[in-house]
Design goal:
With 171 residues, the chain is mostly helical. It is 49% helix and 9% strand. It has 5 helices and 3 strands, in the order ααβαααββ. A 3-stranded antiparallel β-sheet has the order 1-3-2, with helices on both faces. A hairpin with a 7-residue loop joins strand 2 and strand 3. Helix 3 packs across helix 4.
């Protein structure tokens, strides 16, 4: 038991020396090995720290009540920009997970494939002019909280110190 604990400490110390991107790839590989289902995808999601979330909520409340100072207005704008960056990064991560054929090996979007997907209604969900069926809750994808079945799979959010949200999508 002590030997296993020591081996784990050595392995974790070695992993901490890796660049963040490689740490993330290793974690995803380990999660996939623990969940060998073919339809399981691991997605890393970003969010503000707890401290920033509290600050943002307070600033938004003050703004709604019309009591925001110019300094606080600037802080609110900066936090809003951080939220926007998180949303963009999360959207891109989900797009890469759900439509990997639209990205190259390095995760960069392939412009021609995106254009084709937008033009071809049979290629997927990206066509903005395509009407989507209304969900009736029976076999269709309907929202759902983390860990709840959505009809399209399951979402599990596993917190970690370096990446507070890690979602595992299974279909």
């Amino acid at each position: 038991m002590v030997q296993n604990h020591q081996a784990l400490k050595v392995a974790l110390a070695a992993v901490q020396q890796l660049p963040t991107k490689l740490q993330q790839q290793l974690a995803e590989h380990l999660l996939r090995a623990l969940q060998p289902e073919k339809n399981t995808v691991v997605v890393s999601l970003q969010r503000l720290s707890q401290q920033k979330q509290v600050r943002l909520a307070r600033l938004m409340d003050k703004h709604n009540n019309g009591r925001l100072s110019p300094t606080e207005q600037k802080a609110l704008q900066q936090l809003g920009a951080e939220v926007d960056q998180c949303l963009l990064a999360n959207s891109q991560a989900l797009a890469r997970a759900l439509r990997p054929e639209l990205f190259d090996e390095r995760g960069r979007p392939l412009k021609r494939r995106f254009q084709h997907a937008l033009q071809d209604p049979t290629s997927g969900e990206l066509n903005p002019n395509r009407s989507m069926p209304k969900g009736d809750g029976k076999g269709s994808c309907s929202g759902g909280r983390a860990g709840e079945s959505t009809g399209c799979g399951e979402v599990r959010v596993l917190p970690s110190p370096s990446n507070p949200y890690r979602a595992s999508l299974s279909s």
